[in-house]
Amino acid sequence: xxxxxxxxxxxEQIDALDAQILVxxxxxxxxxxxxxxxxxxxxxxxxxxxxxxxxxxxxxxxxPGPLQAGDVQTIFREVMSACRALEKRVVVAYLGPAxxxxxxxxxxQFGHSVEGMACVSxxxxxxxxxxxxxxxxxxxxxxxxxxxxxxTLDLLLQTTxxxxxxxxxxxxxxLMTKNGTMDGITRICAHSQALAQCNAxxxxxxxxxxxxxxxxxxxxxxxxRDDASVAAIAGEIAAQTYDVLIVxxxxxxxxxNRTRFAVIGHLQTNxxxxxxxxxxxxxxxxxxxxxxxxxxxxxxxxxxxxxESRPARTGAWEYFxxxxxEGHEQDENVAKALAELKQNAAFFKLLGSYPFSL
Amino acid sequence: xxxxxxxxxxxEQIDALDAQILVxxxxxxxxxxxxxxxxxxxxxxxxxxxxxxxxxxxxxxxxPGPLQAGDVQTIFREVMSACRALEKRVVVAYLGPAxxxxxxxxxxQFGHSVEGMACVSxxxxxxxxxxxxxxxxxxxxxxxxxxxxxxTLDLLLQTTxxxxxxxxxxxxxxLMTKNGTMDGITRICAHSQALAQCNAxxxxxxxxxxxxxxxxxxxxxxxxRDDASVAAIAGEIAAQTYDVLIVxxxxxxxxxNRTRFAVIGHLQTNxxxxxxxxxxxxxxxxxxxxxxxxxxxxxxxxxxxxxESRPARTGAWEYFxxxxxEGHEQDENVAKALAELKQNAAFFKLLGSYPFSL
Lengths: 358, 358
Description:
GO cellular component, one term (chains A, B): cytoplasm
Subcellular location (chains A, B): Cytoplasm
CATH topology of the largest domain in chain A: D-Maltodextrin-Binding Protein, domain 2
Helix content of chain A: 40-55%
Number of strands of chain A: 15
Function (chains A, B): Catalyzes the Claisen rearrangement of chorismate to prephenate and the decarboxylation/dehydration of prephenate to phenylpyruvate.
Oligomer: homodimer
Radius of gyration of chain A: 24 Å
Shape of chain A: globular
Protein name (chains A, B): Bifunctional chorismate mutase/prephenate dehydratase
CATH architecture of the largest domain in chain A: 3-Layer(aba) Sandwich
Number of helices of chain A: 13
Distance between the termini of chain A: 46 Å
Number of domains of chain A: 3
EC number (chains A, B): 4.2.1.51, 5.4.99.5
CATH class of the largest domain in chain A: Alpha Beta
């Protein structure tokens, strides 16, 4: 019996299963259309991040195998995207150009059955979502090499939009120089975070070359282009942008380094069961004021997962504090903590509650 | 009855369907694993492009709706990718950096359950696939703005690899200048193909500005960066690379403009039912020699779909001709035509037979 004869009955089984799956997928789509009709009666939103994330968590939990849970989630993300597209092909603005990580972040959140809208700036992404030209926007918010994206934080302060979801994408650091070798290199430049993230690798491979923290990895790549004694650590895309050559790819100590994107829109996301809440606060600058301000969190047993400070431009207060906490604003303990925070803060803005990314 | 009460039974139906789909997907994966065991006995390849394209064509044909055929194909591409990953996570080399169209082309061919390997040059992609570091490579072969990718054509001439598939991705042209406006612009520069592809739009919007064909769109973007009187037409990514600003996005007359990528590997793809065959020929440079050389194609009723000539560096012949024809090398008429072509050509190399991209 040759291999094709052995494979034929198995392939027939697969084809029969595919036919069944195809029927069920379309039956699912029909029910999703009914959901759409119900929603249309009350102008309820087509995209419900908390519902989609619940479905994805459920299929991963119930997955009997042998398929891997993550791969099953990728399939169901596309299933939901295709069903959603029958009601409305959701339009998502992102920081262009097309063909970059930002576009991939759009697909990771919404599946491929969406309409991506490449914008030339973060400001334009916000405008498109605020004006309704796009249903949602996807903006970078924190980058393990560049730190927080200041422009996004500033715009979040003013916008009427909510954060309705987050996307997290893997990030890699590479070592790059003008001529693609380490000959004659006396300094390795990068953002301090990137230097820290490649610390073990650098100690092992180039323990004797001086490391210098600069404003950003892009700045480091620019320096490497203009100075043959400088090596830069930056993302691969910087090598292309600044016309330098990669000496070693993927040198970060933690291969799970990630960039976070915020999904912004008019939508207020309902609780999914595993959520976080982002807010901005400020306080008059007195010693200890910040710690006192945040005390309602511990009082109500709310964990803080992120804390960023950012100079205010107004002069009225010295800093804005960007805080992420575990839980949804509708959770009782979170609601109480937020109410107290608001009372004591000179400035308070809730940015949104949304599911933790998968 | 409020909206959540109306949605609840529908969501329960969806959850029940998802549970059934999940079971069938895993049953499919089990059969795919059996396929893997049969293949392992004879070292048969895990990835069979002709089989996958047949499955995708079949689900599109049999799709009862309401889901759109293209969206159903996206779902099944991920299903096959996830099943394949149980046997082996296929490693695919591509022209990096990560986060570009080349990476997206990998996912479009293989689904997301693969291991992408970003390479710094087209040469390195070929090397990785030749050495077996990667199972396949994905290289750009033809670009509607830059024409053919010469380096890929040159490497195809020498490689022991076959073309085992193709991927086609949409391409957009944008108009860009140093300061983001058309004030003071006296020339619009681009590759001649890009100028042609934006002809109607340019006639309508800027009929009186001189158009100048340059070597490539990247060159045009570089000129725009250095000269405030020049506007360039190029892909959005060039605006980022050359630090110029987009004035108008997506100005190409045909929104279906595409870039082609070749999938290269040791695999010889079997017939899928709708295939093409790529080959390279040369002939001594006599008047009419090319036309005479190609006559076996018409004799055996084989349609030529693409014809590119490229100067040979050897000096022994004047040109290499890159020819694509309809049909598979195993088809009787194609096999006869190829045998005759080979007999008459000074140089003949079969690059591979593979399915038309979806």
